[in-house]
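Lecture notes, part 5. Sequence design as translation. It can be helpful to think of inverse folding as translation between two languages: the language of shapes and the language of residues. The source text, in C-alpha cells, appears below.
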C-alpha cells in the first residue's frame, strides 16, 4: 500500500471514530471546537520550525515538501487522529501532535545558536496565535459575553483557539526531550553533565508518555493539575479577571 493510500485510510478511520464519538454523545461541542482549532495550530507549530530553519540556511523541510499548509502532509496517525479520539472518549478534552518537520541543524549557518531559534519557533508561533486569539476575543466578544453571560459560537471558537494555543506553547516548553523546551536545557547545560545526559536522553520520551498515561489513570492527572492553573489564569486574561 502506498504512503498516500495509507494516509487516506488513517484519515477515513479517524473521521469514522470521530463520528462514532459524536453519535454516542461521548464528545462535547467544546471538544469538537477544540479539535478543530488545535489541528491547524499544531500544523503551524511544526511548519514554523521548517520556515525558520529555511531562513537560516537549512532547506531540508522544503525539499521534503513539509513547508506546506496542507494538513494531509503533516498527519501523524497516532498524534493527530487516535490520541485526540481516545482523549475525547475518556472525557479528557482534545490534545495531539503532528509529524515533526525534518531539520538538519548541521546545514544552519550558525548551528549552535540558530538551532535554539529553530526549536523555539514552534512555541513562539503558538504564543503569537494565543495572543491573536486573545486580542480578537477581548476586542470583539468580551463585552457581549460579560453582558449576556453566554458564549456565542464564534466567541467560543476564538476562546478555545486562544486557550488551546497557550496550552500548546506551555507543553512544548517543558524541558524534556523531544519537546522543544529541551533545547534550552541542552544549550546551557554544563559540559560535565553531558555524558550522563546523553545516556538518559533516548529514554526521556518515556517520561512524557508516562505523564500522559498517569493523566488517564488519575482524575485529575498531573498534566491536568499543572495546566489547570495556566488555563484559569489565561481565562482570567480573556474575561478581564471576572
Amino acid at each position: 500500500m502506498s504512503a498516500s493510500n495509507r494516509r487516506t485510510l488513517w484519515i477515513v478511520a479517524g473521521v469514522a471514530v470521530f463520528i462514532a464519538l459524536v453519535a454516542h454523545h461521548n464528545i462535547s461541542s467544546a471538544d469538537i471546537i477544540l479539535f478543530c482549532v488545535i489541528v491547524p495550530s499544531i500544523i503551524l507549530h511544526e511548519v514554523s520550525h521548517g520556515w525558520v530553519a529555511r531562513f537560516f540556511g537549512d532547506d531540508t523541510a522544503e525539499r521534503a515538501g513539509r513547508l506546506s499548509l496542507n494538513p494531509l502532509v503533516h498527519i501523524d496517525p497516532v498524534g493527530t487522529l487516535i490520541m485526540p479520539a481516545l482523549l475525547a472518549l475518556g472525557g479528557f478534552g482534545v490534545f495531539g501532535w503532528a509529524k515533526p518537520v525534518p531539520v538538519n541543524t548541521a546545514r544552519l549557518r550558525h548551528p549552535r545558536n540558530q538551532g535554539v531559534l529553530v526549536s523555539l519557533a514552534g512555541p513562539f508561533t503558538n504564543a503569537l496565535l494565543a495572543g491573536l486569539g486573545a486580542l480578537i476575543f477581548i476586542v470583539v466578544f468580551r463585552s457581549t459575553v460579560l453582558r449576556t453571560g453566554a458564549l456565542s459560537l464564534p466567541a467560543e471558537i476564538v476562546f478555545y483557539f486562544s486557550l488551546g494555543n497557550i496550552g500548546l506553547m506551555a507543553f512544548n516548553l517543558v524541558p524534556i526531550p523531544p519537546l522543544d523546551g529541551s533545547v534550552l536545557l541542552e544549550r546551557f547545560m554544563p559540559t560535565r553533565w553531558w555524558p550522563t545526559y546523553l545516556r538518559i536522553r533516548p529514554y526521556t520520551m518515556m517520561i512524557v508518555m508516562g505523564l500522559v498515561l498517569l493523566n488517564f489513570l488519575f482524575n485529575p492527572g498531573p498534566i491536568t493539575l499543572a495546566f489547570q492553573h495556566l488555563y484559569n489564569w489565561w481565562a482570567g486574561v480573556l474575561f478581564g479577571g471576572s
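The translated text above is only one of many valid answers, since several sequences can fold into similar shapes. The chain has a mean pLDDT of 83.
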